[in-house]
Specification:
Layout lengths: L11 H9 L3 E6 L5 H16 L3 E6 L31 E5 L12 H5 L2 E6 L10 E4 L6 H12 L5 H14 L10 H11 L5 H9 L4 H12 L2 E3 L8 E6 L1 H7 L9 H5 L7 E7 L6 E7 L5 H7 L3 E2 L3 E6 L3 H14 L6
Parallel strand pairs: 1-2, 1-3, 3-4, 4-5, 7-8
Antiparallel strand pairs: 6-7, 8-9, 9-11, 10-11
The protein binds adenosine monophosphate (AMP) and manganese (II) ion (2 copies).
């Protein structure tokens, strides 16, 4: 049977019925996975395995290497490289993935799978599954997994909670972003009650890096450019990280994810952009952030990517100069939201 996408929103009950009908499931998250992609996938994977389901989990980009902040996560033994994922799984579940292209090398499993359950919170989600659990108000995909576990009647073990917390803390920026509701804090309390070492999880994500990264961060910030007239006068700050920077400091692409979090602090710019060259494919991975006056999600959709309103990205097939010209042009057209 081949999956035929239906954009109809799924209920938790639909997703429960689907998961209960399968004793084998393939899980996939977006390329170059972050804490929410990995955390949400491993959380559901562990809970399903604990109740006897055969589970494989993967992602479709190289290197197939767990980024350093997530190397202590429970459930890493569920992971297999993309080329070991069956070509036509009976049930494929995707996490934190807004569109098929974000599955990279695993994108072809969507059309080949019997059923595809999409679990995601991206505003740009294209509902490519046969069942789509998409909640753009959810703070993280990991929080949606907890709702699903509750509906399945599966326990929130300490290991599952550690994975969920990783997703939640990553996507709320440590409970700072606007999606951090009272329910988010209630969920965090529930997770802490399982006895997880939230301090160690957060230290790995926010407060630990190699000295090489500290040097590369300094270099990237020092060479950044502030363009106050861009974004209709709201200001743009941007920088680039090249393959030579990564090589010089012994880093992989995942190690420089945090550059944007420092660059975006510049008060003078509404929008921050970091353009990173991926050594695996030579393409430019563009990260954008706004402070709330500009919907960078829709800007990135117009540039072929996606994301959330205030945090989004796209892949560019053009050199840096042309890429930045396209970014400036798209940002100059964008409406300004009320302050
Ligand atoms: P990043 O800047 O990589 O941290 O990504 C910020 C947000 O944008 C995340 O929610 C990503 O899933 C999303 N995003 C990043 N790059 C892309 C892309 N090429 N296509 C679609 N969404 C993306
Ligand atoms: Mn993500
Ligand atoms: Mn997410």
């Amino acid at each position: 049977m081949t999956a035929s996408p239906s954009p109809a929103p799924a209920s938790l009950a639909d997703a429960v019925a689907l998961l209960e009908a399968h004793d084998e499931v393939v899980l996939a998250c977006h390329v170059n996975p972050d804490g929410d992609a990995l955390g949400s996938m491993l959380a559901l994977g562990l809970a399903l395995r604990d109740r006897g389901t055969r589970v494989l989990a993967s992602w479709g980009s190289r290197p197939f290497e767990v980024p350093s902040p997530y190397r202590d996560l429970p459930g890493l033994d569920l992971l297999v490289p993309a080329d070991q994922v069956p070509p036509a799984p009976a049930l494929l579940v995707t996490f934190d993935t807004g569109s098929v292209d974000r599955l990279g090398a695993l994108g072809d499993r969507v059309a080949a799978a019997g059923d595809v359950l999409v679990i995601d919170h991206h505003a740009s989600n294209t509902c490519f599954g046969t069942l789509n659990l998409v909640d753009v108000t959810a703070a993280s995909t990991a929080s949606m997994v907890v709702d699903l576990l509750d509906a399945l009647g599966l326990p929130l073990t300490r290991d599952v909670a550690a994975c969920v917390y990783t997703g939640l803390v990553t996507d709320t920026g440590s409970f700072k972003y606007v999606a951090t509701t009272p329910d988010v804090h209630r969920l965090a309390a529930r997770l802490l009650e399982t006895g997880i070492r939230h301090d160690l999880i957060s230290r790995e994500i926010w407060d630990t890096a190699s000295y090489g990264y500290v040097k590369a961060l300094g270099l990237a910030c020092a060479r950044s450019v502030l363009e106050p007239d861009e974004v209709g006068g709201l200001g743009l700050v941007w920088t680039a990280v090249g393959v030579e920077d990564l090589e010089r400091y012994g880093l992989v692409l995942a190690d420089v994810e945090g550059v944007i979090d420092v660059l975006r602090t510049a008060r003078e710019a509404e929008v921050a952009v970091v353009v990173k060259t991926d050594p695996e494919d030579g393409l430019l991975k563009v990260s954008t952030r706004s402070k709330g006056r500009v919907d960078v999600g829709s800007v990135c959709v117009s540039l072929g990517g996606g994301g959330h309103r205030f945090a989004a990205g796209f892949t560019s097939y053009e050199p840096l100069g042309q890429t930045m010209e396209r970014v400036r042009a798209a940002l100059s057209d964008v409406p300004h939201l009320p302050a």
